[in-house]
Design a protein that fits this description.
315 residues; alpha/beta; Spore Coat Polysaccharide Biosynthesis Protein SpsA, Chain A; 2 domains; binds uridine-5'-diphosphate; binds magnesium ion
């Protein structure tokens, strides 16, 4: 860490099975950065790729050892851990994150840097004409809405990974030691002066998205649970209403029993109410589980990721 901050820019890129994209990424990214006229480094994290990504990264390191660093994970720990591992090792004053699949054009990096030069410490890209499936865009809108209602994080496009941060913000992210987190939102919560810029968005250059529906759901749970316990509280409030209502029902039914005598016609209504309440309980237990599981992961302090080796020139 001796010459920490002696570099002006660090670019952080998580890579998972991106062999079809890496050659084009290299061909487009390096010229953009070379043209900036600032000292820079690029940190790739190979997140346990099963394809040729590792070999391609090693070859690129051999070609440009002056500006390239490659962190090799032992297996797949997910995009945000891949970014985290790189953030823990950056040397630049400004840090830019980027996806490897060229959905975020590297040519947009100077736009972000113009903002950090103005003194903003967190610059978020907002994807214009987002090139993702209708389903993905719809889910994004929904999660954006939930997030904006339950947290004080204000972002127009949380899913865009093309972002720039000051070193102070990145140090804050690293110090947080977060396990299940959503880095753009965490960065925002640590920033003093945040802004956004419109950036182009392209279709995935090659291959398909690495996110299955399951990992997408998990990631979005991470986003909400890391920043707020509002769902737990909303649930409690809802449960209180339900129990109040059920109590009223018991009183009404009890009174009817005393006045009219035994009735059987209401059995299905009762079943309906019962099933409803049981499902409410199940949701609540699941919700508690979401928080519990994450608490557990933090408490047991297991290594968040394992590195097999790092390719970098000695300082
Ligand atoms: N990625 C990763 N680990 C994973 C999944 C994805 O490092 O387990 C990387 C991937 O290589 C890409 C970025 O994270 O650079 C975004 O992934 P992807 O394009 O699949 O997500 P989408 O654009 O569909 O949200
Ligand atoms: Mg993508």
């Amino acid at each position: 860490m001796s010459n920490s901050e002696s570099i002006s820019l660090s670019v952080v890129i998580p890579v998972y099975n991106e062999q079809g994209n890496l050659p084009t990424l290299f061909a487009r990214l390096y010229p953009v950065l070379d043209a900036l006229g600032r000292s820079y480094e690029i940190l790739f994290t190979n997140d346990g790729s099963a394809d040729q990504s590792g070999e391609l990264l090693a070859a690129q390191y051999a070609a440009r050892p002056d500006v390239t660093r490659v962190i090799e994970f032992k297996s797949n720990y997910g995009q945000h851990m891949a970014v985290m591992a790189a953030l823990e090792r950056v040397r630049g004053k400004v840090i830019v994150t980027l996806d490897a699949d060229l959905q975020n054009p590297p040519e947009e990096i100077p736009k972000l840097l113009a903002k950090t030069d103005e003194g903003y410490d967190c610059v978020g890209g907002v994807r214009q004409n987002r090139q993702d499936s209708f389903f993905r865009r719809y889910i994004s809108k929904l999660i954006n809405w939930i997030r904006s209602r339950t947290t004080n994080i204000r972002m127009s496009d949380q899913g865009c990974m093309l972002r720039a941060y000051s070193r102070a913000v990145v140090d804050g992210i690293v110090r947080s030691g977060a396990v299940n987190t959503f880095i753009p939102a965490l960065a925002y919560s640590l920033a003093r002066k945040a802004t956004e810029v419109p950036v182009a968005h392209e279709e995935r250059h090659a291959g398909t998205s690495n996110y299955s529906l399951y990992s997408l759901i998990r990631l979005n749970f991470d986003l909400i649970t890391y920043f707020t316990t509002a769902p737990l509280q909303l649930f409690t409030i809802f449960a209180m209403f339900c129990s109040g209502f059920s109590f009223l029902l018991v009183i009404i039914l009890g009174t009817r029993r005393l006045i009219i005598g035994p009735e059987e016609g209401g059995i299905f209504t009762l079943f309906g109410i019962l099933f409803f309440l049981i499902s409410v309980c199940m949701v609540g237990i699941g919700l508690i589980g979401e928080y519990m599981g994450r608490t557990y992961q933090v408490v047991r302090k297991r290594a968040r990721y394992q590195i097999s080796h790092i390719l970098e020139a000695s300082e």
